[in-house]
Design brief:
Elements lengths: L1 H14 L16 E2 L1 E5 L5 E6 L17 E5 L6 E7 L7 E7 L1 E2 L19 E7 L3 E5 L6 E9 L2 E9 L8
Parallel strand pairs: 1-7
Antiparallel strand pairs: 2-3, 4-5, 5-9, 6-8, 6-10, 10-11
Length: 170
């Protein structure tokens, strides 16, 4: 009888799991980005720098995807905004930002004067249900970053540049 009670407690002990409510931050390594898409204050694409390794939507054509997101402006200075399209408006969304290393070819016309940052993990994270959200960037140094967005089973990502010195040299 003691044997069965011990087995019962072992089954209960290993059968109970704690629900994981933390964000998936893509592991411990710093993501390597190969480029980014510059966007104006309205989210319109202006220029592609390098070869952006991004996933912005659930389909092959962003504007026809059931799910997609856009980060703007990029490069960002004081505030960055996110527009998220989903089939229904109140779907919960998780967003997090990590440092990134730039390994692509920089456009010779742009001098950002910023360095790669070697730390990993989320430096910002939030949950929301709206289709638009903005965050202040005053606490983040100039550099390259990757933004992740999780909606249902999808994880999207974009490469952004934060330039905290006021203006870019074109």
């Amino acid at each position: 009888m003691k044997k069965y009670i011990s087995i019962f407690f072992i089954i209960i002990l290993f059968g109970c799991t704690k629900e994981d409510t933390s964000f998936h931050t893509g592991g411990l390594s710093v993501p390597e980005i190969n480029g980014y898409i510059t966007r104006d204050n309205h989210g319109h694409e202006m220029q592609t720098i390098g070869n952006p390794n991004v996933k912005l939507g659930s389909g092959t054509e962003i504007d026809k995807s059931a799910y997609y997101f856009v980060c703007y402006p990029n490069p960002a200075n004081d505030i960055i905004s996110f527009y998220v399209k989903t089939p229904t408006p109140d779907i919960p969304k998780q967003l997090w930002i990590t440092h990134a290393n730039y390994s692509g070819q920089e456009n010779s016309n742009i001098n950002l004067g910023i360095n790669n940052i070697q730390t990993s993990g989320a430096i910002f994270q939030t949950e929301f249900t709206r289709s638009n959200v903005s965050i202040y960037l005053s606490d983040y140094p100039s550099g390259y970053y990757r933004v992740y967005l999780k909606i249902n089973e999808y994880i999207f990502y974009d490469n952004i540049v934060i330039y905290s010195n006021g203006s870019l040299s074109f």
